[in-house]
Amino acid sequence: MPIKTWPITERPRERLLKEGVQKLSDAELLAVLLRNGIKGKDAVTFARELLTQFDGLRGFFAAGEKELQKIKGLGGAKIATLIAATELIRRKLGQEIVGKNIIRDPESLLAYLQACLRDRKKEVFKVLFLNKAHRIIGEKDIFEGTVDETAVHPREVIQAALEHHATTLLVVHNHPSGRAEPSPDDRLTTQKLQAACSAVGIQLLDHLIIGDNRYFSFCEEGLL
Question: 114 by DSSP, 3-state: which?
Answer without folding.
Answer: helix
